[in-house]
Amino acid sequence: MKLWRNRIGRVGWGIADQGVSSLTNFIVAVFVARSVSPNDFGAFAIAFTTYLTAMGFCRAVAAEPLVVRYTSASSDARQDAIAAANGLAVVVGVLLGGVCVLGGVAIGGTLGDTLIALGLLLPGLLLQDSWRFAFFAAGHGAAAFLNDLVWGVVLVPVMLVVLFVAPPTAPTFVFAWGAAATVAAIFGIAQTRTIPRPQESLSWLRTNRDLASRFLAESMTMFGVGQIGVSVIGAVAGLSAVGAFRAAHILFGPVAVLGQATGLAGVPESIRIMRRGRERLFRAAIALSLAMLGAAVIWGGVLLVLPATLGEAILGPTWEGARSILVPLLIALCGTAANSGAVIGLRALAAARRSLRARIALSMIGLLISIGGVVTAGIQGVAWGSACSAWIGAAVWWSQFRGALRYQPLAPSEADSPEYSFERTGQIS
Fold this sequence. Notes:
It is a single chain. The chain is 86% helix and 0% strand. By secondary structure, the chain is an all-alpha fold.
């Protein structure tokens, strides 16, 4: 009983941490939208999308291999791995930040200045995100929550200072947002007494290239297919259709936050459960999917009975378009919830090859169905196509997970994790 209370507590911290992180980003976006011109907000949106892309890249090569491979390692090995992985996060931030700065200088104008601000602070942004994964790998969800809370608390006075000395523009807001994240990243070093080691980045990549390369391919596939899909919808059905699709997804935001939190805390928890046997992992994956499915059904039911006046107050003129596709998107959300346990289970088993195969195949299937749907039935076709794709995906993910349970070789997290011989600088265990 105590073991399950501890596990539920760690997952609870994951939900709280993701809630704080998502709320911080949401508040910043709303504040920027209400304070700057539409042109400036467009520049902010591009910068934020660039940040999300860089974050996905960094997680794939550093944070996710850390969680998958070192959650069950000895505390010394995990501590060294955290220093190396977070050092790589800093290197990725410097390199991609340099690209942003050069691109900003070349572009010029508001967008250019915004990208420059992002580039200068990208190392801190990526390090802060990497700390979250490190804390959950070590079983310290409360520390991850505290770090994100520090980011949110520091953001308020930093934004006030920036606004006091400069006009409210996209570059100044991005600078304030990134500066607050950098403070939280430095606070992470104080929390763990572990200093990131950028000099060990190549060693980390060599040791974990099997996972990192596949996780990266998976991440880029998701991003690329998503961008193509949005472009096709916009070209065929118009920007209003894209807006309706995006607005409907905003309504399902709470379930999306819950899913992200479950992924953040669920992978290390699944690895710990797997120590007691793969059959226990299978049962935990089923329980997780059922819990996510229940949350999706409950929240979807709330949305379906939402009064039109309240919907219009939330989404304004995009409410009507969003309401028209709520049913198929709810079915799609249920399909995604149903596969969540299998996706996390594959991560816990370090079955990166199976996960990548499934992701590429399902991304292509989803893209083809979406294109066919928008051509034949507009936004309704896309929405029902998403529902079909999600449930096809659930079948594929569970098939891959069952196959991995039977045939996947002993995962690194179940055996001896790769050891590092770095000189230790602190303790996170």
